[in-house]
Each structure stands twice: as C-alpha cells, then as structure tokens.
C-alpha cells in the first residue's frame, strides 16, 4: 500500500498531529538510538488503539508497540510499518485501595500518585524509568519489589483488536517477564491493589530509594537502564566490573564507569555500536567466569540497508 493511502487511513482513525511519517525513533527512546519508523502513531484513547490494530491486520502491515522506549534498543535501520506509542494514555486515579494507571503513564508517576493517597506497595517503582505498560510487559522490579506483588488486573487489547480484562495471574508474571509479548497484548491500563499506609513512612522509603538510585546509577547519560538480567547466584554488574570492563568503549557507547550494569550513550552512539558493546561484554564475562549474561533490554528493528 502506498504511503499516502496508509497515511489517509491512519488519519481517519486519529488526528493528523498524532500520525508522523518517517519519524526518527532515536527521538523516542531513552538510549537516543534508532532509525526511522514508516509511520509513528500516538492514539488518544482505547478505541483508536483497537482501530489501528485492526487496520494493521486488515492491510497486513507490520505493527510494533514502542512503549516509552526505556528498556529498548531500536536498530539503525528503523522499523517498517506502523509504530505505536501510547504516551497520550497517561491518566492515573485512585478509588479506595486501588490505583488505576493507564499504560502510557510513567510507573514513577504511579508510585507518586500512590504516595499522595497514602497507599503503600508501589514504593519500589519510584525509580523505574519505564511506562506502566512497559512495567507490566517485563514485570519490572527494583529493591526487592516487583509488579506482580501489587498488580490486581489489567485491560489489554489482543492481536485481533479486542478489548480484554485479565487478572494478574493470567499474565504469567515472573522474573522480568510475562506472557504479554507472546500473546501480542497491548496493555492499556493497570489496576494496582495497594494498602493504606502512613504517608511519612512511604515518603521516607521512596526518598531513600531515590537517593540510592541517583547516587549509584549513571542518570546523566542516555541509557536503557540495566542491560542484563541477574544471573542465578551472581550479580551482572559485579561480573562486568570484575572483568575490568568499566569504561570499555565502542564508538560512542561505553560500559558505565559509575555502574557496570549500565551501558551509556556518551557520544552520539549508533545502535550498532551499542549492540556490539553488549556482545563484547557477554563474551568477555563468559570467557572469564563461564557465566552467560542474558539481556534484559529488548533489541528490535532492522539493520541499515
């Protein structure tokens, strides 16, 4: 289908300002990496999301959900077809002990909204940089807590464009994974079941976790957060540090000198440089310690032609 014809079909679903053609994805990822999307669309409500999915199915055009790009590397060749971002879906509200957060909201903002209502259970998320949808996608966690501890249910769109409400147990949440990618679910909303707590105590915990994050993590540079999952019996950052890889650089990508578990974009890195450095770290740690580091970050898109 010609680009103009597809553009007309997409702008029939949502406003023209929500549809961009040949949009650089490096402008929409935390790593500042990534080539162009053929179409970049930002729906404003659940109905529009459903219609975009149904259109992609009908026209047999590739479809990718980007999220807010925090735990993601997009290759330099970009992504064909439709790329969807849900940043307009960012409403958060509470009713009693339940916190309702749309998927495009930042999980940090959900934790702050819980604090505002003296609700405890989401403190661990106060330093996680991703969206609510991304947090469910990978069962995000930090400092001893994870999404599965407090999620009650979610509203998703399936691969056919149908709206479903699923209990947390139906998402198979486990360490840094869920069945959301295998089922091609698009998370639209999460419902967290929390407990009433003391506002001052909740804030003290969040302040402490924020201090730990800011003092230990290289937040001054673009990155995708923790690159690797924690290998059983080890810590990825310690293995990388003990492999004397801190400061190792390929092009503009560098193993952080501040936290070895992070790879930072210090000088206009390409996605290829970033990915090459990931592979170098994996090989070095495997050769030195016999431990295979598994990526936590997702790599999507195409290599340049």
Give, in order, the helices and strands: HEEHEEEEEHEHEEEEEEHEHEEEHE
Individual helix count = 7
Query: Rounded to an integer, what's the Rg over CA atoms?
Result: 20 Å
Report the CATH C-level class of the largest domain. Answer: Alpha Beta
Descriptive terms for the model:
305 residues; alpha+beta; Uridine Diphospho-n-acetylenolpyruvylglucosamine Reductase, domain 2; Uridine Diphospho-n-acetylenolpyruvylglucosamine Reductase, domain 3; Uridine Diphospho-n-acetylenolpyruvylglucosamine Reductase, domain 1; five-stranded antiparallel β-sheet; four-stranded mixed β-sheet; 25% strand; globular
How are the elements arranged and paired?
Elements: H1 3-11, E1 19-24, E2 36-41, H2 46-59, E3 63-65, E4 72-74, E5 79-84, E6 92-95, E7 98-102, H3 107-116, E8 119-120, H4 132-137, E9 141-142, E10 145-146, E11 151-157, E12 163-167, E13 186-193, E14 195-196, H5 199-216, E15 223-226, H6 236-242, E16 249-250, E17 253-255, E18 262-265, H7 271-289, E19 298-300
Parallel strand pairs: 2-5, 3-5, 4-19
Antiparallel strand pairs: 1-2, 6-7, 7-13, 8-14, 9-10, 11-12, 11-13, 15-18, 16-17, 17-18
